């Protein structure tokens, strides 16, 4: 499982880690029923702290993508819904735009320009 983080991304590391794992599952690198590598291995692969990975895994468990089983590790339950992933990215984009002083009308105009 190839997991990378963008050091230029201003989001917290646990959110970036959750996105990287979510993408890997969506891309089929881990199928429903597969066990994920231990948190330490994932942390090493992403060059972050294991506690940060555990926080990301808990977030994905709350989304219903992962299941934690004592003695069996973390198992993929299902693939993420592509629309929900895009909506999450959209929420992040709107929040970032607002922090920078832009409106949703600005975003809408930009999207129309790109279409």
Description of the molecule:
The chain is mainly α and 115 residues long. It has helices at residues 13-26, 39-46, 50-62, 82-99, 104-114, and strands at residues 66-69, 73-76. It has a two-stranded antiparallel ribbon. The N and C termini lie far apart (33 Å).
> What is the total tally of β strands?
2
Mean pLDDT score: 90
Distance between the termini: 33 Å
**Strand line-up in the sheet with most strands:** 1-2
Describe the protein's topology:
Blueprint: H1 13-26, H2 39-46, H3 50-62, E1 66-69, E2 73-76, H4 82-99, H5 104-114
List keywords for this structure.
115 residues, mainly alpha, two-stranded antiparallel ribbon, 2 strands, elongated
Entry summary:
By secondary structure, the chain is mostly helical.
């Amino acid at each position: 499982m190839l997991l990378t983080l963008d050091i230029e991304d201003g989001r917290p590391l646990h959110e970036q880690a959750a996105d990287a794992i979510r993408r890997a599952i969506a891309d089929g690198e881990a199928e429903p029923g597969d066990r994920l590598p231990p948190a330490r291995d994932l942390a090493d692969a992403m060059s972050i702290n294991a506690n940060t990975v555990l926080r990301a895994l808990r977030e994905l468990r709350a989304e219903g993508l992962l299941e934690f089983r004592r003695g069996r590790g973390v198992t993929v339950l299902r693939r993420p819904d592509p629309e929900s992933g895009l909506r999450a990215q959209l929420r992040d984009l709107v929040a970032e735009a607002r922090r920078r002083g832009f409106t949703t009308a600005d975003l809408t105009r930009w999207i129309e320009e790109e279409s």
